[in-house]
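quick one, two chains, predict together pls
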Amino acid sequence: MSAAAIELPQPRERLLRRISDVLVARHGFYLLLLLVPPLLWLGVVYLGSLFALLAESLFSIDDFSGVVIREPTLATFGQLLQPANFDVIVRTAAIAATVTVLAGFIAFPIAYYAARYARGRTKALFYLAIMMPLWSSYLVKVYAWKLLLAKEGAIGWVFDHVGLRPLLDAFLGIPVIGGPSLSTSYVGMVLVFLYLWIPFMVLPIQAALERVPINLIEASADLGASPGQTFRTVIFPLALPGIVAGAIFTFSLTLGDYIVPEIVGPSSLILGQVVYIQQGTAGNIPLAAAFSVVPILIMGLLLTIAKRMGAFDAL
Amino acid sequence: MSRDQSAVSFRGVERHFGPVRAVDGVDLDVAPGEFFAMLGPSGSGKTTCLRLVAGFEQPSAGRITIFGEAVEGVPAYRRPVNTVFQDYALFPHMNVLENVCYGLKIRGVGRSERQRLGREALALVKLAGMETRRPAQLSGGQRQRVALARALVVRPKVLLLDEPLGALDLKLREDMQGELKGLHRRLGLTFIFVTHDQGEALSMADRVAVFNNGRIVQVGPPAEIYEKPRTRFVADFVGGSNVIEPATVKAWTGTARAASLRPEKVAVLGAGYSPPAGAIAVEGKVAEVLYHGPTNRIELATGIGRLVAAAPAAGGPTLSTGAAVRAVFAPEALHLMDDG
């Protein structure tokens, strides 16, 4: 068969093919088509409601009638500095910071193992194990933890049976973090948060570690660095953007949550609960809005610090 | 050469990856100060051998010594060798100077001394003034120089180069060949160079080891490798030689062994010309003429199979495909090889 004998037909001129011609020729139009839906969503639905919220925080409420006075004022933000409100902010930030740091320490080895050593089936199992907790209902998970942590719950039962109840009681006797039982202490609350947010810490760190080329690690060893030195000077700095991303997830998720502290932990309120109460039962929308601005400010501050420290240099 | 004098010595070294014998019984001695090339196609075991010296791989069998010291179980970070990686492996989060100073920093050299030595090394590879650039801002050739400076600044006893010129374009590659050769002469270090490019190996190395299937098939100076290939593989891989079958060689010389015949030793004569006295002539037809600039590569279909001749392109009759010609060469041009 000679090459000249074969007559290949041209692809058929269908409508989509013609549309492609237009899109290929007009790159700007193509990008516009690509971006309009997400921009509408982000611009109108998300940013619009966010600015409405921020605007609300500049109003105040008439203490006597409970009516919102629609005049710009910083008085509502001033209320945040009242001891009761400021305590809520500090307490929430402290809990979120604790959860974030602990999550980092727990997640890093898991992510490191998954990125550097797990292959094939082990890796599939790893993804399954990390993602599976996300498949079940959030409320079910939190209530399950409440049962585990309760005074007569599974954890207490184990301590009773191995004769370590006094140890648990001594631990719960520690001021501030302790309480009558695990389920009514900050320890319990932090544990539940850790359980819930661990996937959000593991996955970005694992992704960052996977992108560290093996030959950089070899080059570091080649130049005389022990594994520990290589970890500090090469692996960790290159994984830092992933760690920061994971920290942003865990920190902001904890800052905004209002269901976990409702079910587990002591009776003192944290930020999410206050927002919930202020906009609901208390009807103080401006104060709720002002409280909502706090996590945004804290996150903005943290990101600025992270950037200054060079966390994103390797991106 | 006794192994005490060797910079690097292999004895019966093997490296298996599952059922694959990537390195299958290698013995070699690299002399101090030598520019030693490991040449072979991909998968021939040359890179694995380099990684065995660097300490990134451990041998499955055999012994490796570096300046007389057995390095069995010695991790990469304790070996007196440094590597220039194929894709450079520069640290993306450090600038050029930090990259070069990395090994010095690890050794605890003070900041100012470190920077002085780093700048010196950068000057050596002609990159002065690039200190604060990031690797991503450099061209391939510049990255290659940074990788070289980074390895040289820690004064290795042996410098390992893993296809360091592979990613560069032709002109840059030729320049770097000259510079590497010059650096080697000035520094007096032992260089072990891995490449699949026979031209690179022949032009730079003092000695070349040709690898195939995890074994060394021939070691020697470039001229010897080129002129006197010991096997069909070496003849073909280095310089693309003609291999004449034993039966034909026997008819010509009386010895039944395969012979290598370099294309540039074959002259192509048109039908009207008669061969000089004593020369061997083979009748054939021109199958293809490829223009190579200074030379033409002429492929001939002859009674003894395909023959390739390389003839100066300037002057001489223009050959057209299908023309009846004679391939002519002196009997001395035939090099008898070990295999039958």
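Chain B is about 25% helix and 30% strand.
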